[in-house]
Amino acid sequence: ATTMPWLSQVKGVIEAWYPGQEQGTALARLLFGDANFTGRLPMTFPASLADTPTSTPAQYPGIVPAGSGIRQVSYSEGLAVGYKWYQAEHIAPLFPFGYGLSYTSFGYRHLVVTRQTDGRQPVTVSLDVRNDGSRTGTDTPQVYLTLPAATGEPGRRLVGFSQVTLRPGQDERVSITIDPGSAQHPLSYWSTASNSWATLPGQYQVTVASSAGDVALTAPVLVG
Known about the structure:
The chain has 224 residues and is mainly beta. 7% of the residues lie in helices and 29% in strands.
């Protein structure tokens, strides 16, 4: 990520990572509209360096106490890592995690979520995605989950996403499964008391959005 104090002086920004030897062809196709932008940011771009969760020397690169020769890093942001920091601190980033533009626009409708699970059964999230613009394009609806406050987990966590390519005016039903048994432990938090993953009974909130900074549709799910 980088800051962009010059953003208001340009008409657009293309972030192209490691595009390879065909980067010129790829960028030309995007700029001339022969291809549509479909990428999404895998990180948060801050409005200023002071907004980041590692904005002090103690946090990054860390302090070397005199004579120790060992660098000590303070992870004072705790569980609020990455985009969760901006949510927890109510800081609006320049561009949020999951953000991306397109030559068309998309709308989300008719969200249906599994209403209850015992914490072991999968939760299914389904919605209609519609291309509301005039160009064919690919969208990436993202599913975030908010755990009960008692877990101590900050903000929303990404628990799934999908991609769908639609013609102008076309809509399609998209389903995303939240699997409690996956390695990401989407419904769980780390319990220091039991030194293991735990799932707290209660009401969780599912959010469908186009990025971590967006809220398009929400629905509760009861766990336990």
